[in-house]
Design goal:
Number of domains: 2
Strand content: 15-25%
Largest sheet: 7 strands, mixed
Structural class: alpha+beta
Order of helices and strands: HHEEEHEEEEEHEEHEHEEHEHHHHHHH
Radius of gyration: 30 Å
Shape: elongated
């Protein structure tokens, strides 16, 4: 144990002695790790936010399609879906998208499905009668409208409609409510001029979660023109989108990754004359080859581990303290009204372990291999160059 402690002390002193070279390696190494860890932290946290959003989503959403596009669905479909064994509550939903030319922002307008809502109000209440609305914090901010204030929107007939703001709300995930406008169902129907007996889609609750896919198949057979969407399919879609965008960002940073690989390869192809001479001296004074390899292992491991931790810490701070200001617009996707929120820290230890193994191991190996080639050479030959 004493022997290995002395070797570790010598490794630390050797790193300090060549501090400028090692500092350059640590900076390049840490930057690469920071870029990768930022993408991983941000993507995993967005997935967690998406899971919070979908936690209260219906088990099954039934949409009607026409020409491959989403179309309004007849309300009477809900009555026929209701009689399918295993189906619980079936509710037609009224919602749509609205572009506000005044603020150049996109809003989501939705009718209130029930008074039992998963939305947590900051102030006020949910709309109860026509002419009332509850709005997201983002809309309240850009329209300078709070409780007892007013919200004016232009409907599908190009007429301005005045709504009284009775509540401003948030939820477990502000991504769900930031651009949301909740209205009475009758207000939504009138605003978008929906035809009588038509809804945007139908939400279905299923008693047994293992039967959701089976019921979706029955709905498809009953109404071939519909597209049943299960909650699990929504979750997979979010995962695919975020994974694709994170992969795109990794491709963007591939230049930095390639530069680091080149640096590691250059280190693996040989060591400097000064390091060779040092190894020759150590061998001449009685060090074994195993001792030299242990020394170089600790040098490489200390540099790699320090760089890895610095990079992970930098990525963590960037994502959870500075809201990932550099990568957020790219990975979240296009939107005019970005929610101003702080992500809930979510760290996948398995992913960090894999990333650390794939980054630290090659670097340590690239340090040991050339040292081994020098250590097995006659010390006198090494010192003579």
């Amino acid at each position: 144990m004493t022997k290995h402690i002395k070797i570790l002390e010598h490794a630390l002193s050797s790193i300090v002695r060549r501090r400028f070279k090692n500092l350059a390696i640590i900076v390049a190494f840490a930057f690469t790790v920071a870029a990768l860890s930022t993408i991983i932290f941000f993507t995993d946290s967005l997935k967690t936010e998406a899971e919070n959003i979908l936690a209260s989503a219906p088990d099954l959403i039934v949409q009607k399609t026409k020409g491959g596009r989403h179309d309004l669905i007849p309300i009477e479909y809900a009555e026929k879906i209701q009689i399918i064994p295993g189906v619980g509550e079936v509710t037609p939903r009224y919602w749509g998208y609205y572009y506000d030319a005044l603020t150049k922002a996109n809003y989501t307008l939705t009718g209130l499905m029930s008074k039992k809502s998963s939305l947590e109000l900051i102030n006020g209440r949910l709309p109860e009668t026509r002419g009332e609305t509850a709005i997201g914090a983002g809309i309240a901010d850009i329209r300078n409208s709070e409780v007892d204030g007013e919200l004016i929107l232009v409907n599908s007939r190009n007429l301005g409609v005045l709504y009284k703001v009775v509540g401003v709300f948030t939820a477990d995930s502000v991504m769900l409510t930031n651009d949301l406008v909740v209205l009475n169902n009758d207000d939504i129907i009138d605003f978008f001029d929906f035809p009588d007996g038509k809804a945007t889609d139908i939400a279905v609750r299923v008693y047994n979660s293992s039967e959701i896919q089976n019921i979706a198949s029955k709905v498809k057979r009953l109404f071939p023109e519909t597209r049943p969407i299960t909650k699990s399919e929504l979750v997979r879609t979010y995962d695919m989108v975020f994974n694709w965008r994170s992969g795109m960002m990794i491709a963007v940073f591939s230049g930095a990754i390639i530069a680091f690989c080149i640096m590691a390869w250059d280190k693996a192809t040989g060591i400097s004359a000064e390091e060779k001479q040092e190894i020759g001296i150590l061998k001449a004074i009685g060090w074994d080859t195993s001792d030299v390899l242990a020394l170089k292992f600790w040098e490489g491991f200390i540099i790699a581990l320090t760089s890895f931790f610095l990079g992970v810490i930098a990525g963590f701070i960037h994502v959870f303290f500075f809201d990932s200001s550099i990568l957020a617009p790219i990975i979240k996707g296009w939107s005019v009204l970005f929610p101003d929120f702080r992500l809930t820290p979510h760290i996948d230890l398995y992913q960090l372990f894999v990333m650390g193994f794939l980054i630290i191991t090659p670097y340590v190996a690239s340090t040991i291999i050339p040292a081994w080639k020098t250590a097995i050479t006659d010390p006198d030959t090494v010192m003579r160059g």
